[in-house]
Amino acid sequence: MLTRLSPGTAARALTEFWSPRVIGELDDAYVKVAKLHGSLTWHSHEHEDELFFILKGHLRIELEDGVVELGEGDLFIVPKGTRHNPVAEEECHVLLVERKTTLHTGEVTTEKTRTLAEQLRPLPLPGAGGDGS
What we know:
The protein is mainly beta. It has one domain: Sandwich (Jelly Rolls). The chain contains 2 helices and 7 strands; from the N terminus they run αβββββββα. The two termini are 21 Å apart. The relative contact order is 0.26.
């Protein structure tokens, strides 16, 4: 079944910060949305790149050798093996593209770390028969 989905609407439907949700699949990658606020944790993905696209707000990605500032409509790819820490001073909505093997916070586990099963939970979208109907 072919489905049209608005990433912005999907991100707005989220109720938890730092809890990405899968909204689609593209070959061996997941397309995810997340609502961010505060700091995640320093981590890396040894074998996977990670694409951030800012849907709303501002995101600072701290890297060991500098900082990348992203605003609405900006895109940044964190290269595999690069330690990084995403920080959102205000609420920020992002679209992420990651390989299906990418662990949420790499080899680091914190209270914000989400399993793939948690990320695959259905979104409560209006009109989708979920919590947001």
